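On clarity, I found the account of how folds are encoded harder to follow than it need be. What matters is that the chain and its backbone geometry are given together, residue for residue. The format is easy to grasp once an entry is in front of the reader. For illustration, here is how one protein appears when written out as sequence plus structure tokens.
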Amino acid sequence: MTIAASATQGAKATVSGKKIILLRPRGFCAGVVRAIDVVKIALDLYGAPIYVRKEIVHNRHVVDELRGAGAIFVEELEEVPQGARVIFSAHGVSPAVRAQARERNLQVIDATCPLVTKVHLEAVKFAKQGYTIVLIGHKDHDEVIGTLGEAPESTVLCSTEGDVDRLHVRDPERVSYITQTTLSLDETESIVSRLKQRFPKIQGPKAQDICYATENRQLAVKAVVPLCQLLLVVGSQNSSNSRRLVEVCENMGVASYLIDDLSEVKAEWLRGKDTVAVTAGASAPENLVEKLIESLQGSGFDQLEEMEIKEEDVRFNLPSELGRTVQLQTVSRV
């Protein structure tokens, strides 16, 4: 289905007055596109099996597709045979994991999102300068685990303003903060504000750590809330940026649900609703959105309007380990 074309379908038929507002930007961000491409290109270049530590991105459908193509997903490097090829996920890893990969002589391809790498480098910089680093993020998220590993002796994790109030640091004059890239803009702002109240000399990143895609999708949700009675977010439950979209909508007083795919939509959610908004987290494939739109149209939502908040044109280069091989193969064919 071509979504843009479907917006006119209702003009030739009886229109119920029920509307879908499809948000843009939605779905894959540049870091996710890069990570998925890394796995696919590695499989094409080297053949199966290719090992991937953790989910390459937090989406069940993406992982299942890549698994079907020959990728083997593992939780820890102990599951990877000595000397095998392994890909690190988009969420990044700690220095300890990199050291373990060297010890096992693994051929590493690093698919860490460059925006996550930026946060890691900030942690290293602040640690070298003797700061206590406050990492704002969610405990046990893969990205947070990797970032904490950069300077574990210098870093403390805060998830709420209450955590800030309970903080004890060795030198209140030398405190810095960094953040997980997929947080709620509003929640993060309130935590940073509280940090600045407690530690007036606190240092932060030159540019915010929350990634452009997370910000843009949240701004789109805020723009559509006054126009709809329900928001459906396509994304997996372990996707932090997807969960934040639901929270943003609910905090503004409109019902919202996170769904892996259309099979999870319940009829009672749609009952009495005239306008449903649809978006997708940064790791959710577009074909899942298309199938959801088709299902909603079959349920009487025969008007489709696309709302674009901001155009995205961000692209990331392939990891150096893979880029060199692709370039050499390209030259050899010329």
